[in-house]
Design brief:
Helix content is about 35%, strand content about 25%. Strands 7-8-9-10-6-2-1-11 form an eight-stranded mixed β-sheet, with helices on both faces. A four-stranded antiparallel β-sheet has the order 14-13-12-15. A three-stranded mixed β-sheet has the order 4-3-5. The chain is globular.
């Protein structure tokens, strides 16, 4: 693996580094694997399918000059500041689950090499002494995989707790009551400085360096504009209502559940004459394939377990990591014992 050397940069935002990951994944294919680290001023980064209004305290962020950004990977919200080390790994291959496992194994090995007793657990966490020090997320491009994560060293816990507003179901699934209760800071488990940890990880993982050129930077900045689009950040969708819906023949039904090994999955289902017409997916799940395939299979189905299952393969992990058809059908049918939200 090679270390991607960035030129001296000042006041770059999260959007620049997310664009850098995507750019090198698409354009730097001669290097099989790349790794780099970055740091930013106080920022919140939320997942591809998350509703920012539900996950982030926007008023607090505005008052405290904490910027908000959406990334193209799944997973949940993270808070980043100069006490964080952000990690990026770009690999070749179409098996994103294999690449993801490879990344977490490498990071745990690198931290242990530095004398930090780390371990991987759950979908995407790295722990030290039972506390979370790193969360990770991933997404796939044709022939390339991007995995990125946080490494908490001396993070501002006040900002983290106030910026992030995960639902109680997510916290209770971890056996905790608050964001801060879940995590621990690396400075409490090592005498190494953050700079020493960064240099130690790079030295352990990488066997050479690849440098970005001025032309690369200009193309990254052009790509960055996509990440700064208000429509992308806020997740506004072009929702054109069908004529049937306009005549009052359609209904929106919301189904939401937190699933072991999957995360939180929410389906906003448009029913026309009692049949699925469209589905918008939200949550902190990891997308591994094309959600349009899932929608194509389910379009025209009724919200009954038998009809839903008849249209789906047993294993849906090629679209959403860890998802089984039986679990999805149960959620969409509404068999979890909860009354779904709906409106005409």
């Amino acid at each position: 693996m090679y270390h991607l050397s960035l030129p001296p940069l000042t006041d770059r935002r999260v959007s620049f580094y997310l664009a850098t990951e995507e750019y090198v994944a698409r354009e730097k294919r001669n290097e099989q694997e790349l790794f780099f680290t970055w740091q930013v001023k106080p920022s919140v980064i939320f997942g591809r399918h998350q509703d920012i209004r539900r996950e982030v305290n926007l008023d607090y962020c505005r008052k405290n000059v904490v910027e908000t950004f959406r990334r193209k990977s799944g997973g949940g919200c993270v808070y980043a500041d100069l006490g964080n080390l952000m990690l990026a790994y770009i690999a070749t291959g179409d098996n994103i689950q294999f690449v993801y496992h490879q990344y977490t194994t490498m990071m745990v090995g690198a931290l242990r090499h530095l004398g930090i007793d780390a371990s991987a657990t759950g979908r995407n966490d790295i722990l030290v002494d039972g506390g979370k020090v790193s969360g990770t997320a991933f997404y796939q491009l044709p022939g390339r995989a991007i995995v990125h994560g946080t490494l908490l060293y001396d993070t501002d816990m006040r900002h983290m707790s106030n910026c992030l507003t995960p639902d109680n179901e997510k916290l209770s699934s971890k056996g905790v009551r608050s964001v801060s209760q879940r995590i621990t800071l690396l400075k409490e488990h090592t005498t190494l400085t953050l700079d020493e940890i960064r240099d130690g990880l790079t030295g352990f993982l990488c066997r050479g360096t690849v440098a970005l050129q001025p032309d690369d930077l200009s193309r990254i900045e052009a790509l960055e504009r996509q990440y700064l689009s208000e429509a992308f950040i806020m997740g506004r969708k072009n929702e054109e209502k069908s004529s049937a819906r306009a005549k009052g023949q359609s209904q929106e039904v919301v189904r939401r559940r937190r699933m072991e090994g999957v995360g939180t999955l929410e389906a906003r289902i448009t029913l026309t004459n009692g049949r699925i017409d469209d589905i918008q997916w939200e949550g902190d799940f990891f997308q591994t394939g094309d959600l349009k395939e899932l929608n194509r299979r389910l379009t025209g189905a009724s919200l009954t377990r038998g009809d839903l299952l008849s249209r789906l393969p047993d294993d849906l992990s090629h679209i959403i990591a860890g998802l089984k058809a039986e679990t999805l059908a149960g959620m969409m049918e509404g068999s979890n014992g909860e009354e779904p939200d709906s409106h005409s």
